[in-house]
Amino acid sequence: xxxxxxFSEMYGAGSDVxxxxxxxxxxxxxxxxxxxxxxxxxxxxxxxxxxITFAVYGDNEGDEKIIPFDVLPRIVAAEEFDALEAGIVQxxxxxxxxLADIYGPREILKAGxxxxxxxxxxxxxxxxxxxxxxxxxVYSHISxxxxxxxxxxxxxxxxxxxxPSGVAYMLENRExxxxxxxxxxxxxxxxxxxxxxxxxxxxxxxxxxxxxxxDPTGVILTPGPLNSAYYEHSFLADRLGIELVEGSDLFVxxxxxxxxxxxxxxxxxxxxxxxxxxxxxxLAFRPDSILGIAGMMDAYEAGNVTIINAPGTxxxxxxxxxxxxxxxxxxYSGSDAALKNVETYRCREDDAxxxxxxxxxxxxxxxxxxxxxxxxxxxxxxxxxxxxxFALRIKxxxxxxxxxxxxxxxxxxxxxxxxxxxxxxxxxxxxxSGAEETKVVPGGLTRVALKEGSLVVNSSQGGxxxxxxxLAS
Length: 473
Known about the structure:
alpha+beta, Rossmann fold, Dna Ligase, domain 1, 9-stranded mixed β-sheet, 4-stranded parallel β-sheet, about 30% helix, about 25% strand, Circularly permuted type 2 ATP-grasp protein, UCP005522, CP_ATPgrasp_2
């Protein structure tokens, strides 16, 4: 097995196998790489038959692709996950309070902890939400926290509080592993990720309008089959037992949302939307939107429908706001953040801008409003021409960029061709927030950079996924 200078999830910083991986090590001694490759092929065939695909925007071929799936799991010890869970809950709860505050009294802005213009002039800030309090006071019902480990310590790389994707792959990865390696599961005590669906159903019941709380009618609102995450939309609708709809399937009357059915209009109480704010309601946002429902925000303001996630949550996952999250956690919880941020340079600040431009070859630079690995420069892997081009972009719009050190992301053993090699990974934890409780799924989605030396794990950039095991004890 090839090695790297990064922290290995299996071997730590040395050559001894870490305790959570002892069972996997024993099992690997009994299985050939050829057999692992065969099982990998079987999983890929099953994924293709099930239609587990994604589209890459801007791909000239226009084909839907299968996210590569690696058959060697990423394993997290019970005590490691307990610490992560506590830190994630603390972080998400603080960000919920932050959203309620900036759309309400704005105490954090009055205290001067965050520049006012960074919030109020943010493209994701929705002034209409100053007039609306979401049911139960929950803004981000479904969140994703991207984390990386370096030198045996986890750091938060990114917060996703709008419409985080990937849960379908997390659930399908687990089902694939159960089919392919049932004996391996018998030798480990692994917490179930299937609890996510239960969390989601409980949350939908808890945050529905008061009149229907406990037994609401919910739908998943999708932009349609051309969306890159359409498989996930249909998958979740099926698992939740609710309808998958497009904007044309819904209408608003008397400040209530209705769904068109063969039996006539049916009242809708909860809309789990997978479309961006701007397209949600042409009367409130973009007037040219054909994806949303005219009058949706009026029904929302009247308290007759719950929108998951609430419009305007994107302020809290802006990459410039991310750099202030430790201060946000301290302000609202009174405690230091249990999970650390990656050191971040805000190019909107003169000293940080100078440092970034002077050290582009050593830094990772990101657009504050981008995702999916787009709008990013990885200095150590960039050409001189790419660095020069990025320097011009930053100078032209310094407010639009942050920079971070190039982290030595931890690695996991991964099957590539005919060998087991170490590849860099991150971990997306999925969080469900109801009116009373915030829950973290005991697992998550491990994304793996399949190219040797690559630090970009996004599927849109050639990354794959692994099943993530949280040991029960």
